[in-house]
Design goal:
- It is a single chain.
- By secondary structure, the protein is mostly beta strands.
- It contains no helices and four strands.
- It is globular and about 35 Å long.
- This is Sushi, von Willebrand factor type A, EGF and pentraxin domain containing 1.
């Protein structure tokens, strides 16, 4: 069940929709990212459900902001 995704374009037009997924009750996120981009915030992870585009969102790779249930929950935390 491993997936490797590559998005060559910068923008909102590159995304994946996985149909038939069961509802999530827990999630673990692991990633490695390296960027030279200092001008854009960037979205590392976005999970949407019907009625909520930002159910789970890890945003801004410069300072990291975690959104859960459509609300910003944690800001400027350190990812190691």
């Amino acid at each position: 069940a491993g997936y490797a995704l590559f998005f060559p374009q910068n923008g909102t037009s590159d995304y994946v929709i996985k149909h038939g997924m069961p509802s999530l009750t827990a999630v673990t996120v692991c990633f490695w990212v390296k960027t030279a981009d200092t001008g854009n915030a960037g979205t590392l992870l976005s999970y949407a459900i019907s009625g909520e585009d930002n159910e789970l969102l890890l945003y801004d790779y410069r300072k990291l902001v975690l959104w859960v249930g459509g609300k910003s929950r944690y800001k400027h935390f350190l990812a190691t």
